[in-house]
Amino acid sequence: MIPRLSRAVVLGAGTMGAQIACLLAGAGTRVSLLDLDTETAAKGLDRAARLKPSPLYLAADVERIRPGGFDELEAAVAGAGWLIEAVVEQPGPKRSLFERVDAALADRPAADWPLVSTNTSGLSITGLAEGRSAAFRAAFLGSHFFNPPRYGRLLELIPLASTDASRVAWLEAYGARHLGKGTVRAKDTPAFIANRLGVHGLLVALELAQELGLGVDEVDELTGPLIGRPRSATFRTLDLVGLDVAVAVADHCYADLADDPQRDRFRVPPVLRTLIERGALGEKAGAGFYRRERGEVLALDLQTLDYRPRRKLASPAVEAARLEADPGRRLAALAGSEDPAGRFVWGALAAGLSYAATVAGEIADDAETVDRAMRWGFGWEIGPFQTWDTLGPATVVGRLRDEGRPVPALAAAVAAGPGCFHGDGTSLRFADLAPVPVAEAPGHLDPAARRTAVPGLPSNAAASIVDLGEGVLGLDLHGKLNIIGTDSMLMMARAVELAGRAYDGLVVGTRAANFSAGANVALVLMAAEEGEWGELDAGVRRLQAIARAVRFSAVPVVVAPRGLTLGGGAELCLAATRTQPLAETYIGLVETGIGLIPAGGGSTAMARRVAERAAGPGPGEVVADAFGFFQETLTMIALARVSTSAAEGRAMGLLGAGDLVTADPDRQWADAAATVRHLAEAGHRPASERPIRVLGRRGLAAADALTYNQLAGRQMSEHDRKVVLALAGVMSGGDVAEGTPVAEQYLLDLEREAFLRLLGEPLTRARIRHTLKTGKPLRN
Question: Is the pTM higher than 0.70?
Fold first, then answer.
């Protein structure tokens, strides 16, 4: 049965509690958020709702949260399916609340208890349950949400031996399906898995930086994408997490890990204490290891503790490594270099891999659990035991021995025995070094694994066509940021044609973090500056033709966006039969930001949606004035607004009102394929091309007046106004009477002509050049 949660109680409206309440509300749950009193809870919720990025998918989700005081606890838990405690990270207050919960539910049969969990980053779960009833202990476990709860993928579950196994399984399923979490089961040890290894690694990096004389910016260059870690790398991660939070975890580990062989690594260095004393807590305080000053990001000098301009790392080893695509060879090359960069990378790897192997059995049952915790919790591309396998356990153990470093017993045993921590679909169990199957999440569909199902389907550098099974074809986009160019357009056209001929439907999606950053504007700019207008015209026509092929396909086409879904990526969604967005989808028609308008069918699609909102059920029937919808849509595109979630994308009209949203990234392909299957079974009928009733001269006049006032108020430049008027000219259908029905092709021609005309403007090309160079818009 699919897990459901209609009501929940969150105890504590602080930073974590209020944001957890927001996450649950976004999943459709009604939440009682309790604190010392109703006013305190309401203030905590208000603070959370004002955060950027928002913990809410939609601002209206806050209506599902009711603030209250702890005096309501007994009444609130009566109707709840899950009670989450998230008060201050101290055992006393937590245990006091659990005593009250135990008493409030004492008369219930154990089977009728709600799930009870504590959100702690490392306190003993066993200690918090001490003295509680058997029913309480059966319902209780640790549930450590990573901060911020909406965006952090990892959810560590820490059950007791007494915790009912079905409750743990329920939370695993609910967390994945409805909250989009990657869940792992951790053992009840200080800081659990991810923070134990992650904070150890961050402190090692700081220690090595000071030892080798490297700056925080240089270390971040070494510990980011270069070695398969997130762009925030080391010191930017510390700033994002909060230096006070990281120090609290380190202090906790140092205090509670008396027998840890690397305990001293958790001793907080003076530089961190000094920054905290200064109030430089990181991003939330405006300064930490980095500080922004007059638009420039400055880096902390670890020797003087003053801020200085950032500098690039000068290292031949790093430059050579950037040319290596294989992560194993890249890491090996870096770790084998004798320059400071190489010594740093090897020092960090040696310490981190050794520590993971030393404490592995203490924190988790198997290698895959640890790797998932670090991938999901800290954004690593490959976890520590995958890294062991990439470099070769025997090779790493040999080097550790040669350098006189301690060799963990687990690593030595693996090097001498199985030779790796992961096999084909298996992971090493630490207790007996036995390979155990890696459980695949329910509903998981990996298009890469499906390539072998029907070999020989078309593929190129940008995308691959795959057979997803049950009559559904897939187009897996896998180019850099999935920029829409010649290769991807070719594969899209072939996928739509093949699906219509031999399959029941098509899914277009990606396994990357971002669906598409839009068209290749660098090539567009180059062609414009070389005067290749015929080729540009042909390119826009190709993109429009693909959108039409998707829209009028003989079989259902479901587009599955996730992450950034901009420009041409958004236009593909607008053309689809349905979309199956990930909850974290940030969609927008952003072309006006570079002085252009949507021309891959996007401007036309939005004009169609405006007309449809005003239309009645009968042919040609109009039941509402389209003007308000027109103005709202025009403003949204003119401002290049990007949704902050799939839910907001629907509210903006960029995703279908009836489209279902997937929370779990691992389920998205399967959900999209199921939607295709459902549409096909339900008797999909290709879309019919109907005339679009436009606002004509009324829309043009309104846009002219609006932009004139904004120009007069210095809210836009002359060129901004020219772009918005060009967009309005397309969406209103040009110089025609209000209510005139026009063909879609007429609007497509208008948008293509307007796009090319704006591209011919020097100011537009200057905007494109500036954005490509800086990543920021230019208002000229």
Answer: yes
